[in-house]
Design a protein that fits this description.
Shape: globular
Strand order of the largest sheet: 1-8-7-6
Structural class: alpha/beta
Distance between the termini: 36 Å
Mean pLDDT: 86
Low-confidence stretches: 1-32
Order of helices and strands: EHEHEHEHHEHHHHHEEHE
């Protein structure tokens, strides 16, 4: 195992004492994120009903809770797409979170792997993923008589620019209430904490396809391999009392895996390279000395502007 000189923590459901989405509109809980939360709740309240494309992450969890506050649980539904790119534990926790809010939770199957653009895994892979998602969730909402579909896109996502999936979802008619209200990731986490949502500090948990380097074909087996590698490595770090929060095993192609962990833990893991032996199925496993960072694969694109 070598160090390269150049995560995801299971998603919790609601805290035991936070089975409801939080205090009533207008009280102290709203002040944490300022006017953005008020704007969000006002926008949601104007909708007849809403289906949230619910990944289980901090953003879509907050959006789902806000929708319940604004509309009541009877006018809100959640849909978590099930495919090889979603770890099983994420689905279980998403279902528990939604049920804790009292909303109907759907788990429709999506088939991203049937789309050539998704399998090819160029810089626009997420466009094909979100196209598939909306081709399933959109008709589901219509069949259920739900007026709108929303994603958890936030204001930071829009500012980042590199988001082919946002373009696909928007083209399919999805709305983005968090981004429209100008809410950033930090504000969403602050408001989530004030509302008692245990997802307030959940680490980023992008789909498993984000672990596979652009240009390397996405397959069901490849997705399974990185999922199993991360689970095994997290177990190994736990046994070694190394408190890893963010973790990614990146398939770089050519039989090479790159491990990203919290930057402050890189040195401790580098001193115990045998821990990386928990990752199997790759000829070589490297530890990234820069540590975990969201969007690390985008750094490798020769011309990311073409996908903006």
């Amino acid at each position: 195992m070598t160090s390269d000189p150049q995560a995801a923590l299971p998603a919790p459901g609601l805290d035991d004492d936070a089975s409801l989405p939080g205090p009533a509109v207008g009280d102290g809980a709203d002040r944490g994120a300022g006017q953005g939360v008020d704007a969000l709740l006002e926008r949601l309240a104007s909708l007849p009903s809403l289906m949230v494309a619910f990944s289980g992450g901090a953003d879509s969890a907050f959006l789902l809770a806000a929708a319940v506050r604004a509309l009541g649980p009877e006018r809100v539904e959640a849909a978590t797409a099930v495919s090889p790119s979603l770890p099983a534990a994420e689905l279980d926790r998403a279902r528990a979170f939604a049920e804790g809010l009292g909303v109907v939770h759907h788990a429709p199957a999506t088939d991203e792997l049937s789309r050539e653009g998704y399998r090819a895994n160029a810089g626009d892979r997420c466009f094909f993923c979100k196209t598939e998602l909306m081709s399933v969730v959109g008709p589901l909402a219509a069949a259920r008589g739900v007026a709108a579909v929303a994603t958890g896109t936030n204001a930071d996502d829009l500012a980042a620019g590199f988001r082919p999936g946002i373009r696909a979802a928007a083209g399919a008619g999805a709305i983005t209430p968090l981004a429209d209200a100008g809410l950033t990731k930090a504000e969403i986490r602050a408001a989530s904490k004030a509302w008692g949502l245990s997802t307030w500090d959940k680490p980023a948990a992008a789909c498993l396809a984000s672990r596979i380097a652009y240009g390397v074909e996405v397959t069901a087996e490849g997705l399974r391999r990185v999922a199993e590698a991360e689970e095994a490595l997290r177990d190994a770090f736990g046994a070694a009392a190394i408190p890893v929060r963010n973790l990614r095993v990146r398939d770089m192609g050519g039989g090479t895996a790159r491990v990203e962990i919290d930057a402050e833990l890189v040195a401790a893991v580098a001193e115990r390279p045998s821990l990386l032996e928990a990752v199997t199925g790759f000829a070589e496993v490297r530890l990234d000395s820069q540590g975990f960072r969201s969007g690390a694969m985008n750094e490798l694109l020769p011309n990311p502007e073409r996908y903006r």
